[in-house]
Design a protein that fits this description.
Strands 1, 4, 5, 6, 7 and 15 form a 6-stranded mixed sheet that branches. The chain has a 5-stranded mixed sheet with strand order 10-9-11-8-12, sandwiched between helices. The chain is globular. The chain is built from 12 helices and 15 strands. The chain is α/β, with parallel strands linked by helices. It starts with 9 loop residues before the first helix and ends with a helix. Helix content is 37%, strand content 21%.
């Protein structure tokens, strides 16, 4: 599974249902009529699109001012404005509830930088990715154990931590890492490294770099980007917006606007304030990643 495992069951259902009840929004119906769906027309008529976000920096979260922020909402605001939908409304939920919430009509689109993989492609319709991502490590200042790859962590028998359900768990196991702890988020990971409770925290490169810079910690540092391997092959994950399977017209319209941003270079300028660089830009397509 990529980036986060797909959690299911009562907890996910309750979370999505509770947030939906509190939002006061009516649901927009979706039916597979075979013509690509009519959601875009309905969103234009309503003037609002509801974004499913997972509270994860830098992808989509509620800022300290109580407003929606992150790379995905910023992209959504631009693209949906161009599509004739002027207002974006956040729908916070657990990451594992995003696909459930989307397909149960709790919100209209997943705007959480969700990694594309074949399993998810059977459940949702992905736009082409807006970014590609490698990993990085948070280590004590000076990197005393010289941890620069997953194999290094395994060889040093280092105590590793990462986020709950992160794809990095599988990448570490693939490399032979034995001591793996899960923590709520990257800030908890940084504190665990500072306090010596773990030797390394592993996350996506932008997330790791941002938390180290934002906290100004003098006790830890971020490594250079790390490429994970599966079955001996390098893995570069990509993240994208997700739509309900029948809504091809909306996805295709979104893609057209996304490609304009890529060609003009404006996409990078939208994402740069959230820690993204030219290295995270990609021309891979959702179709390619759905096959891989």
């Amino acid at each position: 599974m990529r980036r986060r495992t797909l959690l299911s069951g009562t907890a996910a259902l309750v979370t999505a249902g509770a947030v939906g009840a509190s939002s006061g929004c009516s649901r927009v119906a979706t039916a597979d009529t075979g013509d690509g769906g009519h959601l875009l027309d309905q969103l234009r008529a309503n003037g609002t699109v509801r974004l499913g976000i997972a509270g994860e920096q830098p992808y989509g979260y509620i800022g300290t001012d109580g407003k929606i922020t992150g790379s995905a909402p910023a992209i959504a605001e631009h693209i949906f404005h161009n599509l004739g939908v002027d207002k974006v409304e956040p729908f916070p939920t657990e990451f594992g509830s995003l696909i459930f919430g989307l397909n149960s009509l709790q919100f209209d689109v997943v705007a959480a930088g969700m990694y594309i993989n074949p399993e998810r492609c059977e459940q949702v319709l992905f736009a082409d990715p807006e970014y590609q991502m490698k990993d990085a490590f948070i280590v004590p200042k000076g990197n005393p154990k010289n941890l620069r790859t997953y194999a290094d962590i395994a060889r040093a028998n280092a105590r590793m931590a990462t986020g709950i359900g992160y794809a990095e768990i599988d990448y570490a196991k693939e490399a032979g890492v034995k001591q793996i702890t899960t923590l709520p988020d990257q800030l908890a990971g940084l504190l665990a490294v500072e306090q010596g409770r773990v030797d390394v925290f592993v996350g996506t490169a932008v997330t790791v770099r941002n938390v180290v810079e934002q906290t100004g910690s003098k006790k830890v540092e971020a490594t250079e980007e790390v490429t994970p391997y599966v079955d001996g092959k390098p893995v570069i994950d990509v993240g994208a917006f997700a739509f309900r399977l029948p809504e091809r017209n909306l996805r295709d319209a979104f893609n057209r606007e996304l490609h304009k941003l890529k060609r003009s270079g404006e996409l990078l300028e939208i994402m740069r304030p959230f820690g993204f660089t030219k290295d995270q830009m990609t021309n891979l397509t959702a179709e390619e990643k759905c096959r891989s």
